[in-house]
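Hi Y.,

Following your request, here is the sequence exactly as I used it, all 370 residues.
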Amino acid sequence: MKITRVDAFYLRLPLIEARTDSSQDALLIRIETDKGVTGWGEVDGCPAVAKAIIEAPYSHTLVTGLASLLVGEDPLDTGRLWDRMYGATLYYGRGGAVIQAMAGIDIALWDIKGKALGQPIVRLLGGALRDRMRVYSSNMFQFRLEDTVARAKQAIDTGHTAVKFGWEPFGHDEAEDLRTVEAVRKAIGEKNDFMLDVGLIWDAKTTISRARLFEPYRLYWIEEPLHPDDYAGYAKVSASAMQRIAAGEEECTVVGFERLIDEGGIDVVQVDLTRCGFTQAMRIAAYAAARGRKVCNHNFTTDINTAASLHFLCAIPNALVMEYCVEPSEISRHLANEPVRIKDGFAYLPDAPGLGVDPNIAVIEKYLVR
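Below is the corresponding structure, written out as tokens. Let me know if you'd prefer a different format.
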């Protein structure tokens, strides 16, 4: 089997709200083969940048666009192709958007491998340790507290046992932050879990102070309070806070996660498959397990990410819980022909070959940036 074509499809809602919400657009990857087997992947980053990296022409052996590098290769050689892409982008890659673009391709290659071998990806990763994952309802904070509270109640009413809120307008005023945390905890009750995503806006001392203030509200974790490069700050916070500290969604390399774990001391390692790919994600999870850390996914995009995350988490022993974006974007909510089944607060592992999820071409056509 040989790769014959690699395409990148940039999808975007017609009206983009100016806030930190990656459910508003997406970059999908399609890889075709000479045997008629097609794989799908996704990149969560800057879609236009990742698309350019994939489509870039050959310059020289260390500066190569990814699509031209892959045509003619055997898609089943996922590990070898990861190393080949990494080596052919050394002058402009080794992190950031290049690794994210590679991740989307890697997901599509694993999708092809599963379909070609007639197996769901989880079996190719070593086998399923479980057939479902508890999910938490992942939400943006709303700009009115009553709207945030309504979303929290809706999450519990639809069977979720955990809810997360994050990003703006939270984090800028201590009294308002406390009022918000109190209101969400009251809305979801004492038996359900509450994750708080701060959105990178505090320093270490502020985080330690807020963590102490929020102790009565039993946060399941405090997520990304600091800038992702502040490893020393994360070390201070991790040593001081009673709550778990979660981070990692901006990371895309094994080395980056090693630093967050060893230097930053984080408790929950958040791996985004659409920024890391299966090949790297399994290495990251193994490193986290060796250091006694739990792993969660990051996912605020489409059901391709949801399916990839589910295969990954069900294959590793140190999976904690699964993020599931509930933002009402049509790209996020309606891309898949047969979405991952979510029921009573659990996501159920697809048993079809590959990812078990294929996109609806009509949705791609509707939102495609041409």
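The mean pLDDT is 97.

Thanks again,
Q.
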